[in-house]
User: Which sequence fits this backbone?
């Protein structure tokens, strides 16, 4: 039986892109294919509810300024219009604290632009929606951009908006939650619709 023994923090803000983190949150919370469950804690800049891009109202559990790497096993940063408006400094600052402490940060789509503006991608291999998207931030890390669905460089996980399944797999792999075979089966089933991958996932539940 999986036990609730780890904590992941999810940054939330208006227009949060629901689909980008859905797979990852579901697997962390349930541990259905990994045997390890996480307490998912939503963190925001204020105590006010936010509304996601899909129209779902969410209430934060804590403030981003109150959360430190010692409290967490993972910081998840979804995309959202906030990042493209040049905002999100509090979340980028938290990402810096986590990375400096060796705690993984998983950023997808717009969040990668926020990390780029903060200089956190200048020396780390990464990906995003497109190289041109990050280049528009004026960052200095273009030489480290890789055109892949998801990229892991040490404690940093990045992906573009078209890759929520690969983002989930990359994060689970970085956290050591599943074997390469299970992760391949997960991507096969949820990204490619390969029904033959299900027995591998079913076996991982035992």
Assistant:
């Amino acid at each position: 039986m999986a036990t609730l023994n780890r904590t992941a923090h999810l940054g939330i803000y208006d227009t949060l892109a629901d689909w980008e983190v859905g797979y990852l949150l579901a697997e962390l919370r349930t541990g259905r294919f990994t045997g390890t469950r996480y307490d998912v804690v939503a963190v925001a800049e204020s105590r006010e509810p936010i509304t996601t891009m899909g129209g779902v109202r969410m209430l934060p559990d804590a403030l981003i300024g109150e959360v430190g790497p010692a409290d967490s096993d993972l910081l998840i940063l979804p995309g959202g219009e906030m990042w493209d408006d040049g905002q999100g400094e509090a979340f980028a600052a938290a990402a810096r604290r986590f990375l400096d402490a060796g705690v993984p940060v998983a950023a997808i789509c717009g969040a990668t632009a926020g990390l780029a503006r903060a200089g956190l991608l200048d020396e780390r291999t990464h990906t995003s929606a497109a190289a041109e998207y990050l280049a528009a931030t004026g960052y200095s890390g273009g030489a480290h951009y890789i055109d892949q669905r998801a990229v892991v460089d040490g404690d940093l996980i990045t992906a573009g908006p078209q890759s929520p399944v690969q983002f989930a797999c990359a994060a689970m792999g970085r956290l050591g939650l599943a074997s390469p075979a299970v992760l391949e089966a997960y991507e096969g089933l949820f990204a490619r619709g390969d029904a033959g991958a299900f027995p591998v996932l079913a076996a991982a539940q035992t």
User: Anything to note?
Assistant: The chain has a mean pLDDT of 95. The first strand starts at residue 3 and ends at 11.
